[in-house]
Amino acid sequence: MVKSKVAGSEYLILSDEDQSSLNVHATALKYFYGGRIVTATSHVDTIELLNLHGRPELLFVDYNILIKEGGKLHSFVESSGLHMPMIVAQEQNTDPLVLEQFPVSSVLQKPVSVEALTNLVKQITNAPVSTPSHVPISIQTLLQFTNGEFDFYLKLSGRNFIKIINKGDIFTNQDAEKLLAKGIKEVHVKASDSHDLLKICEDRLLMRVKEAGNLPVEEGVLIVIGAIEQVESISKALGWTNEVALSAQKTVSSAIEILIQNSQMTQTLKKRFLNPSSPYAMHIGLQTYLTCGFCKLLGWTEESTQTKLVMASLLHDVSLDESYYDDIRTWNKKASNSKIKAAEVVQYRNHPLEASKFASTLKVLPPDVEKIILQHHETPDGKGFPRGLASNQISSLTSLFIMIEDLIGFIGEGRHIESSISDYLTWGETKYSSGYFKKIFDVMKEKISSGV
Ligand SMILES: [Fe+2]
Ligand SMILES: [Fe+2]
Question: Is the N end or the C end of the chain the one with fewer CB atoms within 10 Å?
Answer without folding.
Answer: N
